[in-house]
Design goal:
Order of helices and strands: HHHHHHHHHHHH
Catalytic activity: Hydrolysis of alkylated DNA, releasing 3-methyladenine, 3-methylguanine, 7-methylguanine and 7-methyladenine
Radius of gyration: 18 Å
Largest sheet: none
EC number: 3.2.2.21
CATH class of the largest domain: Mainly Alpha
GO molecular function: alkylated DNA binding; DNA-3-methyladenine glycosylase activity; DNA-7-methylguanine glycosylase activity
Distance between the termini: 37 Å
Number of domains: 2
Protein name: DNA-3-methyladenine glycosylase II
Strand content: under 5%
CATH topology of the largest domain: Endonuclease III, domain 1
Helix content: 55-70%
CATH architecture of the largest domain: Orthogonal Bundle
Keywords: DNA damage, DNA repair
Shape: globular
Length: 226
């Protein structure tokens, strides 16, 4: 049976899809006018990228980058084999928490044991990739979505569990007061409203996420490590 080729994007089509979104959602046009187009954030479809995404779970980008840099310097390269043989005290010395050390080892075991074959993921549908990745302890839906977006360049992901993404969406669409001191977590009703709005951006929800991340980064003055 022939597989349908997954829908992806490049640095050239990224801008076109941004304009397509701006045509149906004026806020995206305002982001382009104010902040320009988002960069083509791109990572290799590799073990190292998945390990880095694990390190980025629930911490700032700067903190994750520091840990990632230390780990790379200590191990030489971040591979399933180097993680498998790294001592616990080495991982802790690089700033890897006990829980994330376990997640890295679970990922290494899955790749080494070929229960997760990374080379097969680019040919698989989004849902199949998500199912394969989330079968590994420590990789949830947010991590799977980020891998699909950054490493496989799939066009239609929007991780609503991403705090920066939600905050940017609330700000850009004026869904909460603009004063940061008055901002509160979204209510279930607001989350439902966000989900309904995001659904309208299919099949370019990844590009919408890129634009909202870009707007958030520009507004906050955050350094981004691709």
């Amino acid at each position: 049976m022939n597989r349908t080729k997954p829908r992806t994007f490049t640095s050239r089509t990224l801008k076109r899809y941004c304009r397509d979104l701006a045509a149906i959602e004026p806020v995206f046009g305002q982001i382009i006018d104010r902040d320009g187009y988002p960069p083509m954030w791109r990572r290799d479809p590799s073990f190292e990228t998945l390990a880095r995404i694990i390190l980025e779970q629930q911490v700032s980008l700067a903190s994750a980058q520091t840990t990632f840099t230390r780990l790379t310097q200590q191990l030489g390269s971040i591979t399933a084999k180097s993680i498998q043989f790294a001592r616990d005290e080495v991982l802790r010395g690089c700033g890897v928490s006990r829980q994330k050390a376990r997640y890295l080892r679970e990922l290494a075991a899955a790749v080494q044991g070929k229960t997760l074959v990374l080379e097969e993921l680019p040919r698989m549908a989004d849902d199949e990739v998500r199912e394969s990745l989330t079968a590994v302890i420590g990789i949830g839906h947010w991590s799977a979505s980020v891998y699909l977006m950054l490493a496989l360049n799939r066009t239609d992901l929007f991780p609503l569990g991403d705090v920066a993404l939600i905050n940017s969406m609330l700000h850009e669409f004026a869904l909460q007061p603009t004063s940061e001191t008055k901002r509160t977590p979204p209510t279930p009703l607001e989350v439902a409203e966000l989900e309904a709005r995001v659904q309208r951006w299919s099949p370019n929800r990844t590009i919408a996420a890129y634009m909202l991340w870009h707007a958030y980064i520009q507004r906050k003055g955050i350094a981004v490590f691709a």
